[in-house]
């Protein structure tokens, strides 16, 4: 239960949940790709991404000037899918 509580705490924002859903569908995406798909400013997005990386939810790799993010803690997908299936939401 502690791991579930940790995941809920770290992802407790609509933008962060959307990031997880995008990265669940595609193995990795650049900050620019995520920004365009979510229609979120890169500065705000970078704040969310760096926080999730710091907490161990995401990992990143640099290719030239681009940083690509991917899910490091795959269990996050299960928790979010479970919540999405709740009938009271």
From TrEMBL:
The protein's matches in PROSITE patterns, at most eight in alphabetical order, are given as: HTH_ARSR_2
Q: Which domain of life is it from?
A: Bacteria
Under SMART domains, the record lists: HTH_ARSR
Q: Where is the HTH arsR-type domain?
A: 1-89
The entry's keywords = DNA-binding, Transcription, Transcription regulation
Query: Does the record's keyword annotation contain Transit peptide?
Result: no
Q: Which InterPro entries match?
A: ArsR-like_HTH (IPR011991), HTH_ArsR_DNA-bd_dom (IPR001845), Metal_resp_trans_reg (IPR051011), WH-like_DNA-bd_sf (IPR036388), WH_DNA-bd_sf (IPR036390)
Q: Which GO terms describe its molecular function?
A: DNA binding; DNA-binding transcription factor activity
Q: Tell me the protein's name.
A: ArsR family transcriptional regulator
């Amino acid at each position: 239960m502690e791991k579930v509580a940790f995941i809920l705490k770290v992802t407790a924002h609509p933008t962060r949940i959307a990031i997880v859903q995008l990265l669940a569908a595609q193995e990795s995406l650049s900050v620019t790709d995520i920004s365009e798909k979510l229609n979120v400013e890169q500065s705000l997005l970078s704040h969310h991404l760096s926080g999730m990386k710091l907490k161990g939810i995401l990992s990143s790799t640099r290719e030239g000037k681009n940083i690509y993010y991917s899910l490091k803690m795959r269990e996050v997908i299960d928790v979010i899918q479970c919540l999405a299936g709740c009938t009271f939401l």
